[in-house]
Design goal:
Layout: H1 8-16, E1 18-26, H2 39-49, E2 53-57, H3 72-78, E3 81-83, E4 99-103, E5 107-115, E6 123-131, E7 134-142, H4 147-161, E8 169-174, H5 184-189, E9 193-194, E10 211-215, E11 220-226, H6 232-235, E12 241-247
Parallel strand pairs: 1-2, 7-8
Antiparallel strand pairs: 1-12, 2-4, 3-4, 5-6, 6-7, 8-10, 9-10, 11-12
């Protein structure tokens, strides 16, 4: 929709603002809705989404050496992304399945894994990413199935995000929260804004907003949504969600 700008100063301000596209995707260890493990399909979907930064959940296999669900050579040769090097396990891409992908041209500064209070193994990841002269801090997470533990984990995430130098911040991932405005969602909402992405689960017939993107006030939300391509409906039981932000 065309919106005329009323002043030259406003036009200049609009042009100088930087934009960045963020996405979150539970790839279910590359097992699709047909129960076949085909990592190439997931990479096709990542390329379709075309985000600058992508938080992945279930990015590693669950048992054994917990190898990456997306083989590094395949990711490198068939996409424009690289994984933030968490250096936790030799064959894994992430930390308890949480990984962060960035464009190959992006600069990764501080990055770390976050230990979450849990009954079963859970964790989160953090990276400070600079792309096109804009720096943003992102957190990726996959919260518990239990509402009590989700709230404890949300508290830990809010605390972790409050540490360090102030900068534009995004928290995202599979929150496993079915309630519309209660539980951990209410906890996060006291500190962050939610991008209204839409329903992402189940991929074949989306009925729930289990996947969420949250942002601080230093980021201006331009647009958001769920990526619902034919490929995405087959590659995992979750659909990817995305949000585009502008920042000064």
């Amino acid at each position: 929709m065309h919106c005329p700008l009323e002043t030259k100063g406003l036009l200049t301000h609009y042009i100088t603002m930087k934009s960045i596209r963020i996405a979150s995707y539970n790839i279910r260890k590359a097992i699709g809705t047909d129960r076949r493990r085909i990592p190439e399909r997931v990479i096709d979907v990542l390329n379709e989404v075309d985000a600058d930064i992508i938080a992945l959940q279930e990015a590693d296999r669950r048992f054994g050496v917990r190898s990456a669900a997306l083989p590094p050579l395949l990711l490198d040769s068939q996409s424009g992304y690289k994984a933030v090097p968490l250096n936790v396990q030799t064959d894994s891409m992430g930390w308890h399945g949480n990984a962060i992908l960035v464009r190959k041209g992006a600069e990764v500064g501080a990055h770390d894994v976050i230990h979450l209070p849990c009954l079963e193994p859970r964790g989160a990841t953090m990276a400070e990413v600079t792309l096109n002269s804009a720096t943003i801090r992102v957190f990726g997470m996959h919260l518990d199935l239990s509402g009590l533990w989700r709230r404890r984990q949300a508290s830990a995430m809010i605390h972790a995000a409050a540490q360090g130098a102030a900068m534009p911040t995004v928290l995202m991932g599979d929150l496993n929260e079915w309630s519309a405005d209660r539980g951990c969602l209410a906890d996060f909402a006291r500190h962050y804004n939610f991008a209204p992405c839409g329903r992402s689960f189940h991929a074949r017939r989306p009925v729930a907003r289990l996947d969420r993107i949250m942002h601080c006030g230093r980021l201006k939300l331009a647009d958001s949504g769920v990526h619902e391509s034919a490929a995405a409906r087959k590659a995992s039981d979750h659909l990817p969600i995305w949000a585009e932000f502008r920042l000064d």
